[in-house]
Structures are given as structure tokens and as C-alpha cells.
Amino acid sequence: MLSTLANPARFMRISGVALPWLGSASAVVLALGLVWSLVLAPPDYQQGESVRIMFIHVPAAWMALSVYLFVAIASAVALVWRHPLAEIAAQAAAPIGAAFTLICLATGSLWGRPMWGAWWVWDARLTSVLVLFFLYLGYIALVNAFDDASRGGRAGSLLALVGIVNLPIIKFSVDWWNTLHQPASVLRLGGPTIDASMLVPLFVMAVGFALLFAWLLLLRMRTALNERKARALRLYGVPDREQPIPAARPAWR
Amino acid sequence: MTRKRRRLITLLAALFALGAATALVLAAFNDNLVFFYSPTDLAEKSVGPDRRIRIGGLVETNSLAKQVDGHAVAFRVTDGKTELRVVYDGMLPDLFREGQGVVAEGKLRDGVFIASSVLAKHDEKYMPPEVADALKKAGRWQEGSGKPTAVPARVP
User: What does the domain layout of chain B look like in residue ranges?
Assistant: First the structure.
């Protein structure tokens, strides 16, 4: 399945069909999830209406972690098997993951102020998520730091793989150490501790975020492939001698 | 062995070494990674009177006392085994209440914790007010079971 998709031409064909479906599906699911979680879901017995921040914060945090895992796996595939699409996928996903991480940090800060009494604390959970954000930024910067795009991709892939040690630290920070951040509510032994009336809209939002990611990922990968093709055409075909040949640009843009 | 296979094995070995190194570092710095000490941790350590530390636990039920004139408060923080008296003069967060988690920053003096800031720590349970009321009515309510440290489950 994956190896058939690894052919760029076939990828362009299939993703072209999937793109509008993914886009509209994510719009519909996110609209449903937003109304459900921000209007219809009940307030919390302790936190009142502030609990609604959770419906953005938690899916964004899940995506921040899953997208990083995606980047790391794609980087491993790129390093070991040299699949042509793996590196493009990793580089297309990283800015989306960074955006999810930023959303997670910003909404967490807005939530922490009224509930805990602090915008930010240096506890293990918050600090490790901030490190994740810097890992994303470092990956993006490293990929673009080389004139030779393939060397940048190789270096970035290695960084992405090194950063994977941070994922279990983020997940289990609230169990291993005393933190101000509360322990896990959903993915925990003994089942979720969120009432079904809030858990269901939370899952709807999570599905919406995942669809949004899939849509943005395909969009960015197609753009990257088109850009590569355009560069190749400019370099080898259709010579327009009046214009200077542009220097090789990083592939992920 | 093909080149792909060799690259895969190298990668896995490097990741394993990296993971082991990280685990060792984290274990070594374990003491610095905690955001706060529980009263029991504190009793086992000797902390100087001028060191700023954070302590955390549950605000003991019926332990909160407010001064009549000002806004100074005193309460006890417990982890189920050890208690610690905390005095604080300042704004308490909205979620501060008895039976709830709390993290206080300050200094320990003569067995009393002089807090300079108090943060509320909420648990991992989320439910509508009606469900919480129904649980309380049915006697299945455990106050503060989303505890920051190992607290034996209390009688409802």
C-alpha cells in the first residue's frame, strides 16, 4: 500500500482525488465539533465554562505528538529506504505540527491562568512540550540551512529521529514526576475520567483535527512536488535565457 | 547484508543507545525534575530556611482559616501521610478549595511553610455538575482522588 503510493506520479493522481474530500470532511467535522463542544457540551462541575478550552487544547496536543511521530517515521523511511516521497512528507508535515504545538501551548496558557493561577510554569509537562516546539523549529531551520536540498533533508531526518525521545517524556511526564499539569484523562489505564457528554465532542474535535492535518499534508506535499517539477522544467526544458536560472530552493516550500 | 538492512540496523542501534542515554540522564536528574515536593518528601529532606521551594498536595478538609481583618489565610496541605501547615497572604486562585490539589511556593520556617504564591492543581476528572451531584448523592464520591501524590482513597 505504502510502496505503491511512494511513486510520485501515482501519489499525485490519488491525492488529487482525495484532496477535496478531505478538505470538505474536515470542515464539516470541525464545524460540528466546535458547535458541540463550545455550545452544546455541559460546563464542568469545577471549572465551569473554562473547560471548553480543553476541546481545542487536547486535540491540538494529540496532533502535536502524532505529527511529530509521523515526521520521525517518515524520516526513518527516508534514511533507510530512500523512498522519494518520505522526505517530502516529513518536510510537509513539520510546519503543520509546529502550528498544532503552538496552538496547544497558547490555549494551555489561556487555560492555566484562570484555573491554576499562572500563565506558565516550568513543570515537566509544559517544558517538554516547549522542547517539542523547538524541535519542530529546529527541524524546519536545519532542512533549509543547506544549499543542497538533499543534504538538508538528511540532516533534518537525523534531528527528527533524535527528537523522538521527547515523545514518551511528554506523555509520561505527568506520571513520572510531580507536575502542576494534571495526569492523563483519556489515554490512561482504567479508562477515561471524562464524562461521556464531554468525551464524545472531544473525539469529534480530534477527528476534525486529524482530517485537517491530512488535508493540509496532501496539499503541501502536492505543492512541493509541483515545485520540484517546475524547477526541473526550468532547468532542463523551456529555456528562457532572458531570466536567470533560479538557485535550487528547499523542497518543502 | 544489503545496504538498506545495514542502514536500518544502524538506525535502530543508534535509537536504542539514545533512548538508554536519555533514561539514564532523566533518572540522574529525577530530583530536579519534580515541580514540587510532597509534605512527606519534605519531612525526609532537610531544607534550609532560606531555600525557595514548592510544596504540593491536597488542602485538608476543614483546615482553612481566614484572618478576620486581612486576606491572610492558613491551611494544611496533606499527601495522606504527612501534613504541613501553610500560611499565605495574597490572592488565591478560583479553583482553590478544601479537598483540592494545591501547589505553593515559598520557604519553610520552623515547620511552617510561608507561601509567596499559591497555584491550584485540578484533577483529571471532567464531568457536568449534575453528574457530580448524582455521584455525591449516591455516596460514590471520592474527594480529591485525582491526587498529586499517592493518597489512599478516602472514605466519601
Answer: 3-32, 35-137
